[in-house]
């Protein structure tokens, strides 16, 4: 038997659909060579201050800037990102760019994600160094309409952009993957710069010694 839906029922359903909360997902894209506590601090602060449902870490396959060298394989970087984030249920890891291969342009990633999850609002987190570089991003005018960019301060970089950036205040740290790689190479400590699991992995695999 076909049930007739009454006007009040339709109104209730329409209200429910309108009020349905869009899922809010932060994205932290990076080379993560290796992932460090600076990444975790900004992800956690943005997640909590913007009330996001989760933050997805997306390691790139081939970084778009030509000056970035990735001596470490994508699989090892993915493994370290998983080790870094495993204790935090609000942190997820996606291998979307590793599966796609080639140059990891953010526009391609966002379009793929939006196609799969049209109801999700994405917040792409970038440090001050990346904010400055934003005008040079691939198809930036199109990308800016698909995601909200969230900027976080990084020592030495200005919080300015011609693009609409949502700035979130985070405790600024001068931790970088460059510093971690340099310390390993020089035989200096990386304790408290990376998680203990990543520290063990780097030493066990003999990464960054050369
Ligand atoms: N300490 C930090 N404070 C704020 N943002 C950061 C910090 N470290 C990394 N980021 C941001 O995280 C994203 C991914 O960074 P990435 O994986 O390239 O690490 P990195 O430390 O910048 O690496 P490298 O030293 O090799 O250039 C970028 O948007 C970057 O600006
Ligand atoms: O799409 C672009 O043109 C583009 C240019 C520079 C950086 N990105 C993305 O920004 C993120 C941080 O980059 P990186 O090189 O600092 O690790 C990472 O997800 C990159 O793919 C993207």
UniProtKB/TrEMBL annotation:
It catalyses: nicotinate beta-D-ribonucleotide + ATP + H(+) = deamido-NAD(+) + diphosphate. It holds the Pfam family CTP_transf_like. InterPro entries: Cyt_trans-like, NadD/NMNAT, Rossmann-like_a/b/a_fold. Its EC number is 2.7.7.18. Keywords: ATP-binding, NAD, Nucleotide-binding, Nucleotidyltransferase, Pyridine nucleotide biosynthesis, Transferase. Gene3D superfamilies: HUPs. Residues 27-182 form the Cytidyltransferase-like domain. One of its GO terms (biological process) is NAD+ biosynthetic process. One of its GO terms (molecular function) is nicotinate-nucleotide adenylyltransferase activity. Pathway: Cofactor biosynthesis; NAD(+) biosynthesis; deamido-NAD(+) from nicotinate D-ribonucleotide: step 1/1. Catalyzes the reversible adenylation of nicotinate mononucleotide (NaMN) to nicotinic acid adenine dinucleotide (NaAD). NCBIfam families: cyt_tran_rel, nicotinate (nicotinamide) nucleotide adenylyltransferase, PRK00071.1-3, PRK00071.1-4. Belongs to the NadD family. HAMAP family: NaMN_adenylyltr. This is Probable nicotinate-nucleotide adenylyltransferase.
């Amino acid at each position: 038997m076909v049930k007739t839906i009454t006007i009040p029922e339709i109104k209730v359903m329409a209200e429910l659909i309108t009020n349905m909360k869009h899922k809010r997902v932060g994205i932290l894209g990076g080379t993560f060579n290796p992932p460090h506590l600076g990444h975790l601090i900004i992800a956690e602060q943005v997640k909590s201050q913007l009330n996001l449902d989760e933050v997805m870490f997306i390691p790139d396959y081939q970084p778009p800037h030509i000056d970035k060298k990735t001596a470490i394989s994508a699989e090892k970087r993915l493994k370290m990102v998983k080790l870094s984030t495993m204790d935090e249920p609000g942190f997820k890891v996606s291998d979307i760019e590793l599966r796609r291969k080639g140059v990891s342009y953010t526009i391609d990633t966002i379009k793929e994600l939006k196609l799969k999850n049209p109801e999700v609002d994405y917040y792409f987190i970038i440090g001050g160094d990346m904010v400055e570089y934003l005008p040079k991003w691939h198809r930036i005018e199109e990308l800016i309409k698909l995601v909200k960019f969230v900027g976080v301060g990084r020592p030495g970089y200005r919080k300015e952009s011609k693009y609409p950036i949502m700035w979130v205040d985070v405790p600024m740290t001068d931790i970088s993957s460059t510093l971690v790689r340099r310390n390993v190479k020089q035989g200096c400590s990386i304790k408290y710069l990376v998680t203990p699991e990543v520290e063990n992995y780097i030493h066990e695999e003999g990464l960054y010694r050369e």
